[in-house]
Write a structure and sequence with these properties.
This protein is of the alpha+beta class and 196 residues long. It is globular and about 40 Å long. The two termini are 19 Å apart. The chain has a six-stranded mixed β-sheet with strand order 1-4-5-6-3-2, with helices on both faces. A hairpin with a 5-residue loop joins strand 4 and strand 5.
């Protein structure tokens, strides 16, 4: 069981904790676009393929991020959280995901075993975490909050369009630019849950 204290902790990436598997990937153009109603259907196809390939090694799979929130502007990248028993045990999922066309990009062992995979068409970020990772809980809380809060969905959408200005080739800068609104929304969620 994940504690409120663990859920409320904002992870700060330390370069010593993060390892590119095959060198730094090519720089991608960062764009924010209006919500596309095809995103949930694309996700369901991807989910089905992953479930079929991983079988019992897959404990949970979720559509997360902005493409999972109806009406929310987003980068046109489907974010998927995948839960396995132990993300360090790569033999249980890496070859299976690679057979589907996913490419392992990053290992972050101290970030709940996080592995990041890319898929190119459609563009997907697939995140693998160990069971009971607080990060998965955080992602689902954020997604579900935005699905029910029209006001915060609009605030976040506006913040994204503002954040992208001047950094279409710098994903890190884009994330930094919208970090305040993200933290503010998380504070609302935690307060609503009685964590603070």
């Amino acid at each position: 069981m994940v504690s409120p204290k663990e859920i409320m902790k904002h992870y700060v990436i330390d370069p010593q904790d993060s390892y590119f598997v095959n060198g730094v990937p090519p720089i991608e153009n960062v764009a924010v676009v209006a919500y596309d109603s095809s995103w949930p259907e694309i996700y369901l196809t991807l989910e089905s393929d992953v479930k079929n390939e991983l079988g019992s090694n897959l404990l949970q799979i979720d559509h997360v991020g902005s493409t999972a929130v109806p009406g929310l502007a987003a980068k046109p990248v489907i974010d998927i959280d995948l839960t396995v028993a132990d993300a360090e045990d790569e033999k249980t999922y890496v070859l299976a995901l690679e057979s589907l066309g996913y490419k392992l990009i990053v290992r972050e062992p101290r970030f709940h075993g996080h592995r990041l995979f890319h898929y190119n068409n459609p563009r997907v970020n697939l995140h693998v975490f160990t069971l009971n990772s607080p990060e998965i809980t955080r992602h689902l809380l954020f997604r579900n909050w935005l699905r029910q809060s029209e006001r915060d969905c609009k605030l976040y959408s506006d913040a994204k369009f503002e954040a992208i200005k001047g950094c279409s080739l710098d994903i890190q800068k884009y994330h930094e630019n919208k970090s305040k609104i993200v933290r503010d929304i998380y504070q609302k969620i935690f307060k609503h849950l009685g964590y603070i």
